[in-house]
Amino acid sequence: MITARAAATFEPVGRSVAAARGFVRDTLQGWGLGDIVDDAVVLTSELVTNAVVHAGTAADVLCFRDAEGVRVEVADHYPERELPLHDAGQPFGSPDREGGRGLLLCSALASRWGVDYTAADKRVWFHLDLPDRPVGTRSAGPCVPDTALPVAATRVRVGVVQVDRGGNVSAWNSDARELFGHTPEQVLGKPLTDLAAWPHTPGTGTGIAEALRLSRWEGSYGVRDHEGRTVPVYASHLRVRDSDGEPSTVCLLVPDHERAVLQSPQRGPAPDAASGDGRERPTSDPFEVFIGSPAPDDLDGLLQRTVERARDMLDGDAAYLLLATDDETELEVRASTGLPAARQRFARVPVEGGSGRYGSARMPSVHEDLSVVPGAVPLLSGTGMRSVVTVPLKVEGRLTGSLGVAAESSARYTNEEALRLQFAADRIALAVERARLTELERLRRGSLSFLVEASDLLAGTLDRDQTLALMAQMTVPTLATWCAVYTVADQGSEPTLSYVLHEDEDRIDSLKALLGRVDAPDPVPTPGARVWTAPTEAAHSAALRTSLRNAGMGTDDHRFSPAASLATAAAVGGETVVLPLVARNRVIGMLTLGKPTDERFRQEILELAEDLSRRAALALDNARLYSERTAISQSLQRSLLPPELPEVPGVEVEVIYRAAGEGNEVGGDFYDLFEIRDGAYGFAIGDVCGTGPEAAAVTGLARHALRLLAREGFGGPAVLERLNAAILDEGTRSRFLTLLYGELWPQPDGSAELKVVCAGHPLPLRLRPNGTVAPAAEPQPLLGVMDDLELYEETVVLDPGDVLLCVTDGVTERREGTRMLGDDGLSDALTACTGLNAGAVAARIMRTVERFASAAPSDDMAILAMRVPAPQAEPG
Questions:
Q1: Left (φ > 0), alpha (ψ -120 to 50) or beta: where does 726 sit?
Q2: How far is CA 565 from CA 476, 545, 546, 870, in A?
Q3: Does 271 score more than 50 pLDDT?
Q4: CA torsion, points 343, 349, 353, 354, in degrees to nearest 10?
Q5: Where does the pLDDT of residue 88 fall: very low under 50, low under 70, confident under 90, or very high at 90 and above?
Q6: What pTM value is reported for the model?
Q7: Distance of CA 294 to the CA centre of its chain
Q8: Which pLDDT band holds residue 701 (cuts at 50, 70, 90)?
Q9: Residue 102 pLDDT > 70, yes or no?
Q10: What is the Cα–Cα distance from 195 to 197, expressed in whole angstroms?
């Protein structure tokens, strides 16, 4: 009777053999049949090789579990390929020959095997019986004294957490609530990644998402409790599926120091096991078992298994492994067991200040009692460890790391244990170095990709606030758990807290409040990251005051609000570093990065953050300069336009001005309307060739000269002739200027008389109440070209209901591909404005211009509309 079934299909490529091996191994391990996994994997490998390599077809692998054991079938789609029959009386031949080993192995290892043919495929199968063993017993250990048993709490709690296909928590038992303080309502439906403290390392390592997809996984990580503290746990994950085929992962969690509750026993023969011929088998320590298997791809997994094997090999209470930095001057803690791993991870110690007797990690050492020499091994301070043995990891004579095993009792280790550990370290050193270089290469590629993306994002904006936000968002959570950006406005001014970000949005406000009460770090231009302890000290102090007040023991010291609670202290309680933001030889700010309690930065992350800070500083300074330039440009632009328009009796006036360019550059078009004397008003609309400071100079000259000359009593032609002379006097700074200038006199009969001069400017258009449109002036020479101008003015009378529209060439030259609005298009648009007041006319013309093309306008635009209102009909 079949109790379980699993199937998979593999493509006819070489890598499918390894994939099939993994499929069978995971399936049988998931069924709890570890005793026959190795035989099943060997046979499957041979049969799948025959199918995908020799037969060249896809292979179907099916696993069936029954009461007696497991049946595995491998089918290919090459039925015409005959299976050579074997006479039972004939030998199989030499086992060293090239082919045929698959069937030979089936005959030797399987309980039963055979071949089935169908019309579509050929199926080779084998059956492995379970070994005889007492019912219900998987493995057992010898009887040992009570003092040798692992230590656990009086009430052992095993947290059971179920995670669905999407990585969200779907079940949370009472032990999990007791261990971590979260109620089921607080965690159900949320991603497990919000709780798991998995190391963030760009481009390297196996993340929790990958671990949850494995059929079985076992190891250590951290879980954040309800106060934000990281609780080290030992976990056993099992991938299961329900009756509907929906997969999920069941996670069993215990405190890391109680790992014996869940940790799988080491496979392999017992040291005192005897061979069948009566000879005693050679003993093998856990390192030998480990070295015999391929090294995993990720360095963290390799190092964690190494320290666990080292601890077991020397029967220690704790073990740790440090790796040398690139310059080999410091050692970083990369893995530990039996210690608060999260607190020690990536902690750095100098090589020449190591734990060796000679003050160097380059030599093996044994400390029989650390209480006699306190501080000899800083990593073990406050952990209760008394004796320790450390050995270096070397490759070709170069120090690559250090491995240590510690015990809570004194005088546990001697030189003999140091030699055993050194022998094991020598064998693992090359594998560790190879994995370290692989990780380093991935990290460098990830760092390069990260910096390229960061540079693109920073270069894509010139807005200061957006640049600050990008700086923080790129660092959290990739490089740090939280980030704060300080800015320095001027040399000598105090730093200002400008932006704060935490990976948990609920903690941003409390973190900002805490940093606001702490003196900002000094703006020191020294490159590199420096440690800043003020936030951690302030957070712990505030949390202590909050706890005392809650316990009724508080004082009246309220410098820190209760919001800075234990959760905030845990959020900023780890390592905090400050990197200067230096641009153009000036400190313009500081980038502050922080980790939660018991976590530190690794050296590669700090180097990556330093590269990012240099790019971010330049982007921030560019944004500052651009903001200043834009503010100056807009201020100058406003100064070139009239502050307000006077009210003209009996005439409606409306002006719309749109400056083109991202920063609204100065220069270009301008307009003006001013009172000359009682009953007389001057108006002008002009366009200076080009933009920028030189064009702005001509614009300012023109607007102010027009007002001054008109109020001195000069007529229109005389005003423009003198303005032309002033422009030419500017020499090389002079620019061409098109200008429409006029004088307006409202009349008692409700009309308005105008005298206009159109010097090279688009002609003004008059709209009659009947909808006809015609030019209201004739073209004359533009200004700034010739010395002698003969200009004349033209008289125009606006009757009630008439509209005079004046525009710059940015309106008439609006383009969409090869099409241009032009004078005819403007006339048609004005015709549709019959009956509208001046404001509506100007708005409709602007809307017509904007809709004419999809692209943003490339030239400044000014619209001046004047209308003489029609008399209101008297009510009958």
A1: alpha
A2: 22, 9, 7, 72
A3: no
A4: 60
A5: very low
A6: 0.51
A7: 33
A8: confident
A9: no
A10: 6
* Token pair in block for residue 637: 């632009």
Task: Kindly give the interhelix angle for 37-49 and 15-30, rounded to the nearest 10 degrees.
Answer: 150
pLDDT at 289: 46
Report the chain's C-alpha Rg in angstroms: 42
Closest CA relative to residue 571, chosen from 635, 636, 477, 660: 477
Half-sphere exposure of 143 (CA within 13 A, CB side): 0
Only one residue has tokens 């599926």, namely 241
Rounded-to-integer distance, Cα 681 and Cα 675, Å: 4
Give the number of other Cβ atoms within 10 Å of residue 683's Cβ: 24
Percent of the chain with pLDDT over 90: 24
CA distance 79 to 10: 17
Contact 671, 641 (CB under 8 A): yes
Given this model, what pLDDT does residue 190 score? 92
If phi > 0 it is left, if psi is from -120 to 50 it is alpha, else beta; for residue 690 that is left
pLDDT digits (tens, 9 = 90+) for 577-609: 999 998 888 888 999 998 887 677 877 788 888
For the record, the structure tokens of 783 come out as: 């200004």
Q: To which residue do tokens 């010739």 refer?
A: 786
pLDDT band for position 662 (cuts 50, 70, 90):
low
Residue with tokens 């108006």: 683
Amino acid identity at 603: Q
Q: Which residues contact 241 (CB under 8 A, 6 or more apart)?
A: 247, 248
Which two three-digit tokens encode residue 54?
């020799």
Residue 285: DSSP 8-state: -
